[in-house]
Amino acid sequence: MDNNHYARILNEIAALSQIKGVNRFKIRAYENAARTVENLTEPIDARIEDDTVEDIKGIGKSIAEDLREIHETGTCTVHTELLSELDPGLLDLLEIQGLGPKRIKAIYEELGVCDLPSMKEAAESGEIQKLSGLGKKTEQKILAEIERLERHAGRTPLPQARRTALSIRDRLAKLDAVDRIEIAGSIRRGRETIGDIDVLVTTDDPQAVTDAFVSLTDVAEVLVSGETKTSVRLVGGIQVDLRVVDEDLFGSALHYFTGSKEHHIELRTRAKRAGLKISEYGVFKTDDDETLVASKTEEDIYAALDLPYIPPEIREGHGEIEAAEEGRLPDLIEMSDVRGDLHMHTTETDGRASILEMAQAAKELGWSYIAITDHSQAVTVANGMTPERFEAHIEAIKKANDEIDDFTILSGIEVDILKDGSLDMDHDLLAAADWVVASVHSYFNMETDKMTERLLAAIETGLICEMGHPTGRMLGGRDGYTYDMDAVLEAALEHGVAMELNGSTGRLDFNAENARRAQSRGLKLVLGSDAHSTQGLSAIEYAVQQARRGWLTADDVLNTLPVDELLKSVRPKH
DNA sequence: GCCGTTTTCGGCCCGACTGTTTTCAGTCG
């Protein structure tokens, strides 16, 4: 069973327990355990079977028992009892901003409201405002929130949220009153989907900045406005929080507003033991009259806690603080480590630039090589290449090399993995090409076993360098196809196939968790832009960011190698 | 429910803002 299945049940136990009103630390224990399971690089099934599940930090006797029960039956008593006591529809109500577990419980008990439709009905008929502690305003907010949830559910994909954030940043940066402005929050950490945008500003005129912020043309509604914190909702539905801080406190504020919550909880617990207190205003001593120890930079904050700097991308409460303590923090890959890009398209199929244009643009970005990887014929909508066209394309790529200095253009292809696992191209042509990306573009809904067989067959041809966008998921769109990931990773390792971390803005596939899982098995990753235009090449930044979230170093990534070493590192039997 | 360089019991991050209240609980990040 997939780790996510276990995590989902633990999360539901936490959410339902909140509404039931149990001890909040017990709830946190379930949340922590869910997060731990989600981010485990090995199958939880294996830990249950060899009876080591209780050795995992954050999983004790009781939750271990729950996990064993889920392993055997698919669910556990704690979960089923909560579901029979309460109503599963209540989980949706937690999505309503401004309503927490206490109020939901009260409304549930007083009015029998058990899901979004009954909440809407109760609010529309004015029943909510009659309850003690609730009033007309809360009732109106609930209605507005339900309407918003009906219109626009879920989180925003990172690239889209980042564009919005940068636009807001640039507009506010023009104000005289703004000294320094920075995007913090989950965008800075590079989470693949974004709940809201956090903007941090230093100024000597907070009122002027706040006024300008709420007057931005795309602000639909002001949610909160205080001295240091203002929140708005944009026309598109996304929430933006603006925080105004003193210059001297910039480091501690940036650290605080970057999160994650879990990272902070762990860090603050650690600080407390050392007689320190952390808030957005700095690190303070708790024993005397609260002396300020650090606040100017994030480096200062970590130094005050006797820790090395922890990069934003891994501040997720996934063991990074423990690793920092023990000097085990990975030296995360950086943009400057990347030497080339191994996944892109040209006008030969569905790209918008020629071979040479792509090469020149890549050279300007600082790369020393690229692979041109146009589609094979199965992708008819992309004008995929027949064997004849591919053969000619290989020649054209070789020729283009003569027209650019100090740069290598590898001949390649993104060959389709057909329904039966065979490759959509003559094998001798694949063998003749420098770089072969193999990808699935059809029949996404195959059964898990069939899809596993399909991918294994493709890997076992021995002709593949790299598995392209390995799960096929679209960010904020379709889910990835399902297969036995462990079996596929094992085969890829055996046949010298790297897994791609595709940075194109609609995908980010592999995601960070899968990349870390592959890396922990000894597999290499490749960062690819999947560019269809010269501008598209910059998507590699997203791939780097996700790689950092997956704790990858330059050594884990093949396209940090010089081109000759790169080519030696794949297709060993070839 | 989990955990231990103050601990096997007694803790478990910290502050801002709002609405409904007359001093603060609830929610959020």
TrEMBL record:
Keyword DNA repair annotated: yes
Ranges for domain Polymerase/histidinol phosphatase N-terminal come to: 340-419
Q: Tell me which residues make up the DNA-directed DNA polymerase X domain.
A: 4-316
Q: Does the keyword RNA-binding apply?
A: no
Its protein name is DNA polymerase beta
* GO biological-process terms attached to the record: DNA repair
The record ties this protein, via Gene3D superfamilies, to: 5' to 3' exonuclease, C-terminal subdomain, Beta Polymerase, domain 2, DNA polymerase beta, N-terminal domain-like, DNA polymerase, thumb domain, Metal-dependent hydrolases
Localization in the cell: Cytoplasm
Q: What is its EC number?
A: 2.7.7.7, 4.2.99.18
- What role does this protein play? Repair polymerase that plays a key role in base-excision repair. During this process, the damaged base is excised by specific DNA glycosylases, the DNA backbone is nicked at the abasic site by an apurinic/apyrimidic (AP) endonuclease, and POLB removes 5'-deoxyribose-phosphate from the preincised AP site acting as a 5'-deoxyribose-phosphate lyase (5'-dRP lyase); through its DNA polymerase activity, it adds one nucleotide to the 3' end of the arising single-nucleotide gap.
Which CDD domains does this one have?
A: NT_POLXc (cd00141), PHP_PolX (cd07436)
Q: Which classification does the entry list for the species?
A: Bacteria, Deltaproteobacteria, Bradymonadales, Bradymonadaceae, Persicimonas
| Reaction catalysis annotation | 2'-deoxyribonucleotide-(2'-deoxyribose 5'-phosphate)-2'-deoxyribonucleotide-DNA = a 3'-end 2'-deoxyribonucleotide-(2,3-dehydro-2,3-deoxyribose 5'-phosphate)-DNA + a 5'-end 5'-phospho-2'-deoxyribonucleoside-DNA + H(+); DNA(n) + a 2'-deoxyribonucleoside 5'-triphosphate = DNA(n+1) + diphosphate; a 5'-end 2'-deoxyribose-2'-deoxyribonucleotide-DNA = (2E,4S)-4-hydroxypenten-2-al-5-phosphate + a 5'-end 5'-phospho-2'-deoxyribonucleoside-DNA + H(+)
User: Care to name a GO molecular-function term for this sequence?
Assistant: zinc ion binding
Q: Which GO terms describe its cellular component?
A: cytosol
User: What cofactors does the UniProt entry give for this protein?
Assistant: Mg(2+)
* Alphabetic keyword roster: DNA damage, DNA repair, DNA replication, DNA synthesis, DNA-directed DNA polymerase, Exonuclease, Hydrolase, Methylation, Nuclease, Nucleotidyltransferase, Sodium, Transferase, Ubl conjugation
